[in-house]
Design brief:
The structure holds 2 protein chains of 2 kinds. Chain A is an all-alpha fold. In chain A, helix 1 runs antiparallel to helix 12 and helix 6 crosses helix 8. The mean pLDDT of chain A is 85. Chain B is α/β, with parallel strands linked by helices. Chain B has a domain of 70 residues. Chain B is built from 11 helices and 11 strands. In chain B, strand 1 and strand 2 form a beta hairpin. Classes of the chains: A mainly alpha, B alpha/beta. At the A-B interface, helix 9, helix 10 and helix 13 of A face helix 2 and helix 4 of B.
């Protein structure tokens, strides 16, 4: 098992390199550059050239990439051009907020999704099934930034129960968690429901009934456990997705975090910060998949067996 | 009074009637074979007795199933559940897919004793291992901790049988318990089942498509065709003088020592699907003795003097 995890981590290196090239390329495709943000309007081309040279922006793009990569290999993410601070500091300051929000949103959508999917599967083709699935679908088809605004209007402006924005109190996290979490709930609920219904058709479930086990116990202890396998795979994929999805939501709720930092950096064309943020998101996606696979192996002896 | 008495059983699944007027009875210590090709309704008969029809969207439409004097057709699910596994045990067709793949096999046997006999986990484990040893599972204490995918098909079927025995049932229903196994293992499993029945005085319903197995261990046999009884009687009587042409055809399908290579014949055609049952006798399109009434009139299930039951317009043998 340990050697499997090590192998998977080693495999991340080529993926990581590819991703870094793509990130670097895309960022430089965005029109405009950071010098515009440092220059006074009307400064001469000579002054621009001096600034560009100071940050290495005058070099060909592939050279810039290798410089960045070699610094990265030494653990140096570079310095923010406009924000004038080490990128590592900016990330360290913002990532905990994103992790807290993403983690809470993932937990929320997972628990609600599994509960809804289980309820719907147990009451298949009844009114309960239809209304649960319709409600979940409605909650998740609304775009998250718009849902966020609606929630703010209702709970903060109209009812005054929760703060509009920021991250000063624990209540401030509730609305953003709802906003991000509702989106993922439908996926989890639908996968749980389908996987449970599929498992209920299996021979071994028939035999469990024939053994005289109570139906609830069969559904919750045996069927649900099997239905969790595809759900875990999806959750692994969603770890990165949720952090990415948090970008706009953090912005809507004016919360500090990776997303807010990324949008700020985008506006200022601050290349090193953008690269740092995107790299963190890419890492989250890669690690998320790995975590999903490891959890699945822990849950299923057949997967474990195939790995060792 | 018979332990299990099934009378005129008809079931309904999504508007169709795949079982129509099935009757049979069975006493303690008896082995009843239910024979027929795939699609004849053997497994549905098993599910009806187990009360598991609702799982596949079916229900009993007519007739009665009484077990130990109790009518099961109107038994509330919660009471039925307590019979299942405890007094009526089930052995499924495919041991490969019948065990929960993420649960250790021992724990799956334990469930029976903890659920039905109220044993503590430790006691249940000891009991499970003891049963496994009786079923000649080598190194039972080690196998106990294995997962299903680590075991062979024959071993898995022994685990399923151990599960069936764990709560000391009065009736075991085995639905083609050997079909999915290697030929060499098949005989072992059949012998094992027969031995258990004789030893413990359990009643056994053995569902099979193999007349050879019936001849080997059963006391009585019910021959099903397309959801109806063709013929039922004592095994010795049926083999001495099969009266329904379908029964004769099934018996001819048993390979024997004197069978010359290439001379083994099957039954031409196939069992019709439920949606396309022919009028009259359902076997008539494939029957070698069919005559005038067969395509129009359903032969009544009669009790001939030779014993048992028979539904044929032109029965063979003693008239």
């Amino acid at each position: 098992m340990l050697s499997y995890i090590l192998r998977r981590l080693l495999l991340l290196i080529p993926v990581f390199l590819t991703v870094s090239i793509i990130i670097f390329g895309i960022i430089h495709l965005v029109p405009g550059d950071p010098i515009d943000n440092l220059n006074r309007i009307g400064s001469s081309p000579e002054q621009r050239a001096i600034i560009a040279a100071r940050y290495g922006l005058d070099k060909p793009i592939y050279q810039q990439y290798f410089i960045w990569l070699s610094q990265l290999a030494q653990g140096d993410l570079g310095n923010a051009i406009v924000m004038r601070r080490p990128v590592a500091d900016l990330l360290a300051q913002n990532i905990p907020f994103s992790l807290r929000l993403g983690g809470a949103a993932l937990l929320f959508s997972t628990l609600l999704g599994i509960a809804a999917g289980t309820l719907a599967a147990i009451h298949k083709d009844t009114r309960i099934d239809r209304s649960v699935m319709a409600g979940i679908l409605l909650g998740s088809t609304l775009p998250s930034f718009w849902l966020g605004l609606l929630l703010i209007l209702l709970f903060s402006v109209e009812l005054g129960w929760l703060p509009v924005s920021g991250a000063r109190s624990w209540q401030a996290i509730i609305l953003p968690v709802l906003t991000i979490g509702l989106g993922g709930t439908a996926l989890v609920a639908r996968v749980t429901r389908i996987a449970m219904l599929e498992t209920m058709q299996k021979d071994f479930v028939m035999l469990l009934h024939a053994k005289g086990l109570p139906a609830r116990r069969i559904q919750l202890r045996h069927v649900l456990r099997h239905a969790m396998m595809p759900v875990v795979t999806i959750l692994g994929l969603r770890i990165g997705w949720i952090l990415g999805g948090a970008v706009t939501v953090e912005f809507v709720f004016a919360r500090p975090g990776l997303g807010t930092l990324l949008i700020k950096a985008l506006n200022q064309h601050d290349y090193p910060v953008m690269q740092g943020c995107l790299l963190m998101l890419a890492m989250a996606v890669m690690l998320g998949t790995l975590i999903g696979d490891i959890v699945q192996a822990a849950m299923d002896p057949r997967v474990r067996h195939a790995l060792t | 009074m018979a332990l299990l008495d099934v009378r005129d059983l008809s079931i309904n699944i999504h508007g169709i009637r795949p079982l129509d007027g099935i009757s049979f009875a069975l006493d303690k210590g008896e082995i009843l074979g239910i024979v027929g090709e795939s699609g004849s309704g053997k497994s549905l008969t098993a599910l009806s007795v187990m009360g598991l029809l609702p799982l596949i969207g079916g229900r009993i439409e007519r007739g009665s199933v009484s077990f130990d004097g109790r009518d099961l057709t109107h038994l509330p699910e919660n009471d039925f559940r307590k019979l299942r596994g405890k007094r009526i045990a089930f052995i499924t067709q495919n041991p490969m897919t019948s065990l929960d793949p993420v649960m250790r096999v021992g724990a799956q046997i334990d469930q029976m004793a903890t659920l039905h006999l109220g044993l503590a986990p430790k006691a249940a484990q000891a009991r499970s291992i003891e049963i496994m040893e009786k079923l000649r599972i080598p190194e039972a204490a080690t196998i106990y901790h294995h997962y299903p995918h680590q075991l062979s098909g024959g071993m898995k079927q022994r685990i399923v049988i151990a599960m069936a025995l764990a709560a000391d049932p009065d009736l075991i229903i085995a639905d083609e318990p050997t079909t999915a196994l290697d030929v060499t293992i098949q005989a072992q499993i059949v012998d094992l089942l027969a031995e258990l029945v004789r030893e413990r005085g359990v009643a056994l319903i053995l569902i099979t498509h193999d007349m050879g197995v019936v001849a080997q261990i059963c006391d009585r046999v019910v021959v099903l065709y397309a959801g109806r009884i063709a013929e039922s009687n004592r095994v010795d009587a049926v083999f001495a003088e099969p009266r329904h042409p379908y029964t004769s055809a099934l018996i001819r399908c048993i390979p024997r020592e004197e069978t010359a290579p290439g001379s083994l014949v099957g039954i031409p055609g196939a069992v019709p699907s439920v949606a396309h049952y022919p009028n009259g006798c359902r076997f008539h399109p494939r029957c070698e003795r069919r005559g005038e009434p067969c395509g129009a009139i359903v032969p009544a299930l009669a009790q001939p003097e030779s014993g048992g039951e028979l539904a044929c317009h032109f029965p063979g043998g003693a008239a």
